Fold this sequence. Notes:
- The complex is a heterodimer.
- By secondary structure, chain A is an alpha/beta fold.
- Chain A is built from 9 helices and 7 strands, in the order ααββαβααβαβαββαα.
- Chain A has one domain: Glycerol-3-phosphate (1)-acyltransferase (3-Layer(aba) Sandwich).
Amino acid sequence: MDEQVDMSEFLKALCLNMLxxxxxxxxxxxxxxxxxxxxxxxxxxxxxxxxxxAFRLMIVRYGRLVLGSMLPWVRIAKEQSDGTLPQPCIYxxxxxxxxxxxxxxxxxxxxxxVVNVWPFHLPILGWFAKWAGYLSVKEMPFExxxxxxxxxxxxxxxxxxxxxxxxxxxxxxxxxxxxxFRVALDTRVPVVPVCISGNExxxxxxxxxxxxxxxxxxxxxxVTADTYGEWSPFVFKNRIHDLxxxxxxxxxxx
Amino acid sequence: MQxxxxxxxxxxxxxxxxxxxxxDLKPEAQIFQELGLDSLDIVDLIVALQxxxxxxxxxxxxxxxxxxxxxxxxxxGRIGQEK
Lengths: 254, 83
């Protein structure tokens, strides 16, 4: 019986890996130029702001196409607390896998992500991230980063960040860096904690080998300035860390 | 200032400014890895310590060598002697 289950899991993983990577390439090679054309053709007739919004929407569509390429072996469940999420806001997410940035396509609103140095240097995807105004937290002094982040929020753009700074894989959540919490304290924008569960092996850290499974993305109720206004950045980052950690325990105990 | 007094006052800063528990403030605790402070929190820590001890050491290169709470206690002690 166990052997049958093992064989079934093996076949599922085989199908997933054999189909996903060619599809990912296809989606990237055909989807990116096509989506770019949809943005580029009307560009001269729109304002810079409208073009940037369209460009970021294109990235969301690309992200959804990539996520869709993993179906049916990887299912994705978007879960949200009652009510709509405030816009703009800062999405604070735990970070287990390289698939996390693609999952941001499930969150509402126009989004830029806070990224580490290396994603900016990826061919094509890195260039698009740069053009879309993503923020590279390690490539600028904090003051410049905070100013750029506040500028995005002023324009109504949400910011998604992974304050662990690196993937935790199947281990415990790493400590948070306080940069985005300082931006929240300066701008008084609501913070939405986002729990990502189930993708620790999609793919595992240090591997390309995807495992079938279900990824759950759960946005928790926003934490507004009325609540966090008096907190220090250190206390703020740790309280949101604890909120996400406890919710992940609940999500994974079922 | 006595060592115990320095230790108590430094711990007070961690408890008041960072809401850490006294039980976590062991001399061997790593400030980054175990107490969870990041590079920006360190700036806040320096400001709070300067205020507490009435000294200015922000540009002191020896800060870079501090790893544990014990290192910090010794550093503050040396600063006090040099004052």
